[in-house]
Design a protein that fits this description.
elongated; mainly alpha; about 70 residues
Length: about 70
């Protein structure tokens, strides 16, 4: 892999990692809200959606890194 390709890959991975961090922050905030309102199905569903998004990004990052 040439340096430019490596740079592009690093940029993509970095952007996805930033997205995962933001998802984690949102998930933590919702988890705190859920502590005060345990029966809130909407909060539970949103937390699950965020976790799935995060896992999807993790898999994309791993795939990118594995291909290079």
């Amino acid at each position: 892999m040439n340096p430019y390709e490596q740079f592009q890959l690093n940029k993509e991975v970095e952007e996805m990692a930033k997205q995962r961090i933001e998802i984690h922050k949102k998930r933590m905030k919702l988890s705190e809200e859920l502590k005060n309102n345990w029966g809130n199905k909407e909060l539970q569903d949103r937390i699950i959606e965020l976790e799935e998004e995060s896992q999807e990004l993790r898999k994309k990052i791993e795939a990118l890194q594995a291909n290079f």
